[in-house]
Amino acid sequence: MSWDTQLFLFDANGNGVAHMDDACSLQSALTNQFVSQPGVYFIGIAAYNNDPEGPNGLIWNNTPFNVERAPDGPGAPGPLINWSASAPTGGAYSLTLAGCSFGNAGGYFCSISGTCPGTVTLRWSGAQPNRQQGIVFASNTGNYTIPGGPCQGTQLGLGTQNLRLYNTIPTGNGSGSVNAQAGTAACRGYVQLIQVPGCQTSNVAQVP
Ligand SMILES: [Ca+2]
Ligand SMILES: [Ca+2]
């Protein structure tokens, strides 16, 4: 890619969620670190320095360029009403999505927050109450199909690298959280939940 991109993530109401300008040279990348709940999200891509504005101005300040940020501008969090450039430029782009799944809003959802290595918190919602759920870990995403057992044939969003069942915990009333100590080998890895019986799977969440 030959032009200076900026990436923005907005929620369904047009409010800002996350922005990063320069992740790799002048190209942009976003993680899930500011995404705390399921729902509909919009990705915005713009050339530097065409920035989204809310009623009170910029939703994000222009700098720092190489840090992923929640809305921090005078117009935070939005909603988006305008873009700052009067004569926008840009060009062709490719967008790579990794470790994500189509949202089942109101469905089985998990997220991971915290610091890795260190203490991380796994949160889940939308599970069936009073069941068991397996916490499955892998270092990569993929389409691994469970070869046997009660969920034989269920396809996960995980790959086979360091794939393992980390733990099995109750779903409680359908939502909850658990803390865990994450070592270096777990950092930036991926987690997916699968509940038994039923074999419903959650989205894939990335360890910080
Ligand atoms: Ca950029
Ligand atoms: Ca900017």
Architecture of the largest domain, CATH level 2? Sandwich
- Give the domain tally: 2
Main β-sheet description: 4 strands, antiparallel
Average of per-residue pLDDT values: 92
H/I helix tally? 0
Which ligands are bound?
A: calcium ion
Query: Helix/strand-derived class?
Result: mainly beta
Number of strands: 13
CATH topology of the largest domain: Immunoglobulin-like
How do the strands line up in the largest sheet?
A: 10-9-12-13
The radius of gyration over CA amounts to 19 Å
> What percentage of the residues does DSSP assign to strands (E)?
35-45%
Helix content bin? under 10%
| SSE order | EEEEEEEEEEEEE
Low-confidence sequence ranges: none
Distance between the termini: 27 Å
Describe the global form: elongated
Structural commentary:
- The protein is mainly β.
- The chain folds into 2 domains: 1-96, no CATH class; 109-206, Immunoglobulin-like, CATH 2.60.40.
- 0% of the residues lie in helices and 36% in strands.
- The protein has no helices and 13 strands.
- It has strands at 5-11, 16-20, 41-47, 52-54, 57-58, 82-83, 109-114, 118-125, 132-138, 164-170, 176-182, 190-196, 201-206.
- A 4-stranded antiparallel beta sheet has the order 10-9-12-13, with no helix packed on it.
- It is elongated, with a radius of gyration of 19 Å.
- The structure holds calcium ion (2 copies).
